[in-house]
Amino acid sequence: MKKLLVLYCSPRNNGNSALLADAFIRGAIKKGHEITEYHLAGKKISPCLACNYCLKNEGVCAQKDDMVDLMQLLQRHDTLVIASPVYYLGFPGSFKNVIDRTYAESVLKRKIKSTILLTTASKSEDSVTEVMTNYYHALVNFLGFTNLGIISAKGVDAAGEVNNFPCIDEAYQLGFNLN
Ligand SMILES: Cc1cc2nc3c(=O)[nH]c(=O)nc-3n(C[C@H](O)[C@H](O)[C@H](O)COP(=O)(O)O)c2cc1C
To answer: Which residues, judged by CB distance below 6 Å to any ligand atom, belong to the binding site of ligand 1?
Structure first.
């Protein structure tokens, strides 16, 4: 059984990427996986200061914001599920801040071993999610994680629209078929 940390990256708590994540979770729960949900909306996670304090202080960051709790969660889970809208062809800044702040994990040793990407975009062309998924693949490779699946919902804009798309069922199946 996996210990899944689901990271909701949208500022919209009930937006399209959140609904994809919820469907994924329904499937994963059926199979008995352990789930922790974490919403970045409303959290304060500042950019990395590149001060290298964490490298000299056993992975403790100099900044005391919401990343303190999130870092503890990252250290307690083996799989990270990233539920994120596409913002200007990439991840929202909130997610990039999280990734940059995991610099401290180069000292702590990362516990996350695998990742899943669930993403939503308003445009319908394939090229809309290409930059994001290319970056995701490169990041996963760089950090030594294993990609366990990607779902990219395109042509969804208003919050809730994704409910009318087959990718909701795909997200459920991805969770259900996770080993
Ligand atoms: C700041 C911002 C930038 C966006 N950039 C893109 C984009 O580059 N391509 C696209 O197709 N949609 C873009 N969108 C639309 C969202 O990706 C789309 O509405 C998505 O379904 C929102 O997911 P959410 O409901 O989980 O927030 C953008 C939306 C915002 C607010």
So the answer is: 10, 12, 15-18, 85-89, 120-123, 128, 156-157, 159
Residue whose structure tokens are 């259900």? 176
The total domain count for the chain is 1
The CATH number linked to 103 is: 3.40.50.360
Domain of residue 49, residue span: 3-176
Q: What is the pLDDT along the chain (179 residues), one digit of tens a residue?
A: 999 999 999 999 999 999 999 999 999 999 999 999 999 999 999 999 999 999 999 999 999 999 999 999 999 999 999 999 999 999 999 999 999 999 999 888 899 999 999 999 999 998 999 999 999 999 999 999 999 999 999 999 999 999 999 999 999 999 999 99
Q: What is the pTM of this model?
A: 0.98
Q: What token pair was written down for 123? A: 């445009």
Contact (CB, 8 A) for 133 and 100 = no
